[in-house]
Amino acid sequence: MQSCKYTFSERKFLKNKETVSQNSFLFLQDMTRAMNNITCIIKAIMALAVCLAIFSCQKTVEQPEPEVKDRVLLYYAAGFNNLSGDLEEDIEELSSEGYVPQRTSGNVLLIFQNLAQGSYSNPVSPVLYRVYKDDSGNIVRNTLLTLEAGTVAASAETVNTILTTVRDTYPSYEYGMIFSSHATGWLPASGTTVRSMPGENASPLSIGNEYSPETGTSVQYEINLPDFADAIPMHLDYILFDACFMGGVEVAYQLKDKCDRVAFSQAEVLADGFDYTSMASQLLQSSSGLYEVCKTYYEHYMGLSGDYQSATVSLVDCRMMEQLAQVCKEIYSTHREELDNINPNDVQCFGRISEHRYFYDLADIMEQLDLSADEQESFSSALDGCIIYAATTGKMINLTIDRFCGLSSYCTNKFTYDDFYKTLAWNQATCMIE
Length: 434
What we know:
This protein is of the alpha/beta class. The protein has two domains: 69-319, Rossmann fold; 325-390 and 398-430, no CATH class. It contains 13 helices and 15 strands. The chain has helices at residues 2-60, 84-97, 156-169, 225-231, 249-254, 279-284, 289-302, 321-334, 336-340, 362-367, 373-386, 418-421, 425-430, and strands spanning 69-79, 107-115, 127-133, 139-146, 172-180, 210-212, 216-221, 236-242, 259-264, 312-317, 360-361, 387-392, 395-396, 399-400, 408-409. The longest helix is centred in the N-terminal third of the chain and has 59 residues, at 2-60. It is globular and about 70 Å long.
């Protein structure tokens, strides 16, 4: 019995030992599987991290821009004056409500602004910045240049500084500029004389008329036409003047070596100005955009009523101005006596008040002369070669406009600005004022 009992215990021990070994083996198998699973998980996490890192790097790498742009549009706002609010609205429409080009496109939209903030005694820093959409479609305003506080934008020096910066920063096949401010065309800059303001909703005073924080409203800063032209450091495809009385033969001829085309108004421009919601799209996405801008401008005001139905606009090919000058010179020389006896009151004028009665319809001046059929044909042909587009609503507030060719001109027997007029390139080419 003892022997049997011993044998049973031994077998039980051996069986327990075998069970322990099996359990240990199973435990090791489980541990191995767990370690393998952990290894797989770690590898998966590492692979995911690498993918995320690669994806993150790809998102932050910006796509390159074209080294040479297709089109660059600069909006130049000399608005340290009573137009600051209107120009600010135009800038908002231009930079957010209309077409804003992608950063990587061949189109560049630039804005230079000098706008009064509150009192004219508060100096502001004029700023040049680029407006574009990033890769996510967000509108970005990237500052390129900030000028010293109190800098006057209505100066030839500032015009040159800004355009030089634009040229050097963005090489381009085409450059265009919108110049927005007060203006009185070719009239000499007063510099120190405060002129009487026009009627409500209108906006004249000379090229880029502005005030300064140092002098307040007692001094006005303006740019003479020859100085404005000389300040342009590169050839422009076009200039659009959103300003009054710039639509003269004197302006187009003075700019003929600086730009191919110019768009402007022969009379005043209501404070609302041009349509800036469509401006960038028309000028940056189409080679015929400037024509559409002028057409849109005319159609907008023609669709209004009362005093708001007031507009003159034309688009002129400056490259054809030399031919017009030659024809006019011959006519002025041949008809000198008639020219000297013209009564300005008989000619269509685009100024409503005495301060602005220096802008007359060029074709109507010719109508005062006894031209031969050949002379009339030569003049009409030369004029047609210059005018790409011309339109008027037929009035400017309380002024009737029933004769309109698309170019204004100074007239003989006005006398006031004869001496200054003789310094202009147009008069030197045509000798209208001797």
